[in-house]
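Aim 2, interim progress: modelling of the zinc ion-bound target.
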Amino acid sequence: MTEREMENLDRKLIKRGFKVDGVRELCAACGERAQRIYRLVGGRIGGRDIHWCLACDVATSVLRDGSDALRKDDDFDLVKFLG
Ligand SMILES: [Zn+2]
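Predicted structure of the complex, ligand included:
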């Protein structure tokens, strides 16, 4: 992914209401401190966290329900999600 594509995805996430909740977090996949965390707070209906590593490009997501319980979104694909 090019820097331009990354900036584009970043912009789309912000546009959808995600807030950056961490930069340069440790990535479990590659061990680099290059993971960004985006958080969407959805109130009563719940929200979503996205962990996106800018070094290895792995993006994972968890859904957060109204009671703050977390559920992993196994089929998550960042590009499709924003497409
Ligand atoms: Zn990584």
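The chain has a mean pLDDT of 93. Helices lie at 3-15, 78-82.
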